Amino acid sequence: EVLPGDHDEL
Amino acid sequence: MNIFRFLGDISHLSAIIILLLKIWKSRSCAGISGKSQLLFAIVFTTRYLDLFTNFISFYNTSMKVVYVASSYATVWMIYSKFKATYDGNHDTFRVEFLIVPTAILSFLVNHDFTPLEILWTFSIYLESVAILPQLFMVSKTGEAETITSHYLFALGIYRTLYLFNWIWRYQFEEFFDLIAIVAGLVQTVLYCDFFYLYITKVLKGKKLSLPA
Q: Transmembrane residues, as ranges (chain B)?
């Protein structure tokens, strides 16, 4: 599950 | 980074450049929905607020800057520079019906109840429906210029490629983001009708016309 705030996609 | 995500970003960048050039060269924004472009400017603004605080890579930062700058430039051309050519009578989609539900949903369904995260979530939800005013305008005018259909195709393909990127990342990186995936699926489904028309008509040299 993605951690909040670490969105590495555009 | 994987090939699907890279091709997706290139397709997205191409769509943005195609639109910018179409309006700038023809000095006209006929057939272009200013509302959709406004929504895209909101999408990029709310999604890239961490532009200066969260450095991921040169590629990531430079693409974000290009996306934000070009979306504002496009809105400026439509509502200011070439506003005489803006076809407001056919650009009548009620954007509040897109902004309010996505804003509410971003408060209810998100990864973390913090301002940045809620704004990021809002931008993901809004992006999935931001093209509706444009598709509505094409259906209302009953046709679209060929360059506009190429713009829409590139824009639609970008999120379709991102779906493959998420499959790839789930498979090889144990990464998945359900919010982005569900919104990406909705976004891609909205283009299906257009994809069918584009492939059956525009690629055969015909003009894109919708049964009015």
A: 5-24, 33-52, 59-79, 93-110, 117-135, 150-168, 179-199
Q: If DSSP states are collapsed to H, E and C, what string results for B91-154?
A: CCCCCHHHHHHHHHHHHHCCCCCCHHHHHHHHHHHHHHHCCHHHHHHHHHHCEECHHHHHHHHH
**Could you tell me which residue, B2 or B209, shows the higher pLDDT?**
B2
Sequence-distant (6+) residues with CB within 8 A of B14 are: B154
Write out chain A residues lying below 8 Å of B120, CB-based: 7
* pLDDT tens profile B67-89: 999 999 999 999 999 999 999 99
B151, B154, B145, B205: which is closest to B21 by C-alpha?
B151
Of the residues B111, B112, B170, B174, the best mutation for testing chain A's interface (the one with the most A CB atoms within 10 Å of its CB) is B111
Residues of chain B contacting residue A8, judged by C-beta atoms under 8 Å apart: 56, 60
